[in-house]
Amino acid sequence: MNYRGPFRVRIDEKPHPKIEHPEDAIVKVLRSCICGSDLHIYHGMVPDTRVGTTFGHEFVGVVEEIGPEVTKLKVGDKVIVPFNISCGKCAFCKQELYGNCHESNPQATAVGGIFGYSHTAGGFDGGQAEYARVPYANVGPTIIPEGMDLDDAVLLTDVVPTGYQAAEMGGIKLGDTVVVFGAGPIGIMAAKCAWLFGAGRVIVIDNVNYRLEFAKNYSQCEAYNYEEIGDPVEFLKKATDWLGADVCIDAVGCEAGGQGMQTITGRKLMLQAGSATALQWAINSVKKGGIVSIVGVYGPTGNLVPIGNVVNKGITIRANQASVKRLLPRLIEHVQAGRLNPKGIITHRIPLENVAEAYRIFSDKLDNCIKTVLIPPTVRT
Ligand SMILES: NC(=O)c1ccc[n+]([C@@H]2O[C@H](COP(=O)([O-])OP(=O)(O)OC[C@H]3O[C@@H](n4cnc5c(N)ncnc54)[C@H](O)[C@@H]3O)[C@@H](O)[C@H]2O)c1
Ligand SMILES: [Zn+2]
Ligand SMILES: [Zn+2]
Fold first, then answer.
1. Is the dihedral of CA 286, 292, 296, 298 positive or negative?
2. pLDDT value at position 381?
3. I want to staple 186 with a disulfide (CB 3.0 to 4.6 A). Which of 251, 259, 349, 372 is the partner?
4. Average pLDDT of the chain, as a whole number
C-alpha cells in the first residue's frame, strides 16, 4: 500500500525490497494487520508521514532472502516480526527496551524504529505489502513455533504484547480493580491480561457498543459506554466505593472522543498532538496512590506536556503530594540540628487586611517576592 496523504492510501506497484545491509532479511509477508496505531498515521496525526510510505507494523512472513551476516534465520523460515525494529546491541536494547532502540532510529531520541510508521519512527516501509525488508534480522524475527496458527502469530507482533505490557505496567496486585479505557484490540487484550496479573475486577470503557459487547465476552469483564453513564470519572468513582480504580490503562491515545475541548484542540485544530481525554479520565478515576499505565499513542510533540514522548521513551512517572507525616520526624531533626533554615525563604510579611495586595505581589512576582506571610491583626503587636 502507498500512503498519499491524510485519509488517502492506495495500492501501487513498488520495487521489490532489496538487502541493503548485511543483517537484513527480505520477508515475504504471510499476514499483516491494520492497527489502531495505523489510523493515527492515516489520519495525518503523526508528523513526517511521507507520501509514498507503506504502512504495516504487524506482519508475519516467510524469509525469502538473507544478508551475509544473518545467522539466526534461513530462507524458508516462517517468522513473527515484532513491530519494533531493534539493533540488539545498543544500551537500550541491552536493557530489553526494544521499543527504544537508539540505532534503528538515530534521528529521534524518543521512539526507536517501527515498521511502516512514518519518518518519525525511522522511515521504514512496513508489511502491508507483499514483501518487506526486515533490518537487524538476527534480533527481532522469531520463528513461528510448530503448529501455531498464523493468525495467532500475527497478533504476537503487537496486540498481545502491547495488551500484556499495558497490564504489566499497571503493577496490578491481587484483587485490584483495573479500568481499561478503549475497547479496541489493545484494550480488549489488556483487559484479558489484567486477570493474569491477579486483578479482581476489570472494567472496560468505550462508546462503541459492539466493541463493548466483544470485550465483555472475550475478556470476561464489565463494559460500559461512556456516552450512557454520565461523567465517566464519577461513574467509576461510584463503582469503586468512591475510591477510584487501583489501576487505569489508557488504550485509546491521541484520537480519543468524549470531551469537546480535547477533541477540538487535539483533533480538529491540532493545537496539541492529539486529544488526551482517555488519559485525563484515567488520571481522574484512578485511586490515590494508584497507577496509570499508558499504551495509547500520542503525537511526539505538541501537547502542552509532551505526553507522547513519555510513552515513546517508556518513562516511569511516579508522583504524589508529599506525605508530610511520614517525613516530619526526620525533618524536625534537621531543623533542630540547624541543618535546615526554613524561615530563610520568607521575603514578605503582610498584614492580613492587605491580602489582595499580598496576592498581587506574589502572583505578579513583584518586589522579589518569594514567600509571603500574612499576619492577622490579632497577633500583631
Ligand atoms: N504502545 C504500543 O506499543 C502500542 C501498540 C499498539 C497500539 N497502540 C495504541 O493503542 C491504542 C489502541 O489501539 P487499538 O488498536 O486498540 O485502536 P482502536 O482505534 O481500535 O481502539 C481505540 C478505541 O478507543 C475508543 N475510544 C475513543 N475515545 C475513547 C475514550 N475517551 N474513552 C474510552 N474509549 C475511547 C474508540 O472507540 C476505540 O474503540 C492506539 O492509540 C494505538 O496507537 C500502542
Ligand atoms: Zn499495531
Ligand atoms: Zn538498539
1. positive
2. 66
3. 251
4. 93
In the reported structure, the alpha carbon of residue 207 is separated from the centroid of ligand 2 by a whole-number distance in angstroms of 21
Tens-place pLDDT, residues 275-325: 999 999 999 999 999 999 999 998 766 667 788 888 888 888 887 777 888
Q: Which residue has the cell 505496567?
A: 169
40, 64, 99, 131, 213 from 54: Cα distances, Å = 14, 19, 20, 11, 33
Mapped to the 3 state alphabet, what secondary structure does the chain carry?
Answer: CEEEECCEEECCCCCCCCCCCCCCEEEEEEEEECCHHHHHHHCCCCCCCCCCCCCCCEEEEEEEEECCCCCCCCCCCEEEECCEECCCCCHHHHCCCHHHCCCCCCCCCCCCEEECCCHHHCCECCCCCCEEEECCCCCCCEECCCCCCHHHHHHCCCHHHHHHHHHHHCCCCCCCEEEEECCCHHHHHHHHHHHHCCCCEEEEEECCHHHHHHHHHHHCCEEEECCCCCCHHHHHHHCCCCCCEEEEEECCCCECCCCHHHHHHHHHCCCCCCECHHHHHHHHHEEEEEEEEECCCCCCCCCCCCHHHHHHHCCCCCCCCCCHHHHHHHHHHHHHCCCCCHHHHCCEEEEHHHHHHHHHHHHCCCCCCCCEEEECHHHCC
Atom 15 (ligand 1) nearest CA: 36
- Beta strands 245-250 and 177-181, pairing class: parallel
Distance CA 204, CA 178 (A): 9
Ligand 1 contacts (CB < 6 A) are 35-37, 39-40, 158, 162, 181-187, 205-208, 211, 226, 251-253, 256-258, 277-278, 295-297
Q: How far apart are CA 178 and CA 283, in angstroms?
A: 13
Does residue 28 register a pLDDT over 90? yes
Domains by residue range for the chain, with CATH: 2-155 (3.90.180.10), 159-313 (3.40.50.720), 326-379 (no CATH)
